[in-house]
Backbone:
């Protein structure tokens, strides 16, 4: 059983990007970037939504994490231009569930908020690491799409960087469903 | 010149309450409550929006911070039932600006997100202390109402509590307006 970790940069008002998907207001340099890249090396695979994937794809990067087995959840993309990227259509929840059941070093969920909410609602998210940036976005893409109930977390670790970024590592508390 | 501090509890997805204004998902006990109450003693006055005030008022508390000079911003309340509470109508920005120009130990902005965004957009918020709670709200009242541009912050201090609450103290960076 592999753990799935949503590892994501947010503003203090809970946004992961501007409304146009850009995220230039986040701190782009510093020790937190080194730590983030090191953390990405600890995973075997990555899952992301189509909109998140498009940010890389539009920049010409069709395989943004070449050392990870990559799954892109999309109902509109038929197949990937890159043989190392697997497109997951309607069945994202079951694909991720199967993936978690395989042995491995962990699954990285890189975004976005809609996929994160979907997987969280199906009890498939184990950990959330917020890279909290010293900025108020004001508007943008929320870290989680709307969900009809709160989810309790357990704070596992924190790290404060000189540039004002704070890493907050949470474990998702499982609660019995009605 | 007094400083104005927005001191507010949020979920990791940037909400200060459920859609119905309740906030039972926040951690209600622990050292962070002691520190929060101690911090409130350092202010002279408090400013809040009508919806925030109503939470106390509906519970029969018409003067929730009796040691502070209290201002409630509302276009619908004509006057206060409590002689210690001043209702501010149309002119919230100018009233707060005048208040800041008076000598004093500081102004506490207790909410909500609409008033916080209004005052921030008028360069009247100096500090923001987030009481970050280990919870995903899923939906609710955002810590800031929609603003059309990001605001950069400087992280001043952090404190991690055993119960998973994290205090994050930020200074608002002033940027020249176009």
Residues:
């Amino acid at each position: 059983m592999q753990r799935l970790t949503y590892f994501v940069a947010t503003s203090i008002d809970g946004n992961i990007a501007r409304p146009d998907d850009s995220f230039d207001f986040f701190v782009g340099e510093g020790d937190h970037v080194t730590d983030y890249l090191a953390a990405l090396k600890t995973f075997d695979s990555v899952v992301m939504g189509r909109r998140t994937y498009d940010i890389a794809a539009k920049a010409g990067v069709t395989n943004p994490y070449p050392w990870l087995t990559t799954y892109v959840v999309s109902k509109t993309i038929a197949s990937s231009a890159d043989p190392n990227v697997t497109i997951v259509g309607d069945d994202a929840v079951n694909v991720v569930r199967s993936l978690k059941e395989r042995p491995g070093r962990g699954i990285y969920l890189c975004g976005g908020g809609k996929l994160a909410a979907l997987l969280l609602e199906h009890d498939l998210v184990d950990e959330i690491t917020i890279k909290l940036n010293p900025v108020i976005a004001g508007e943008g893409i929320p870290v989680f799409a709307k969900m009809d109930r709160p989810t309790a977390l357990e704070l596992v670790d924190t790290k404060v960087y000189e540039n004002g970024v704070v890493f907050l590592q949470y474990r998702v508390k499982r609660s019995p469903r009605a």
Summary: The interface with chain B takes residues 10-15, 18, 25, 117, 120, 128, 130, 132, 134-139, 142-144, 146-155, 158, 160, 164-166, 168, 170 of chain A (CB under 8 Å).
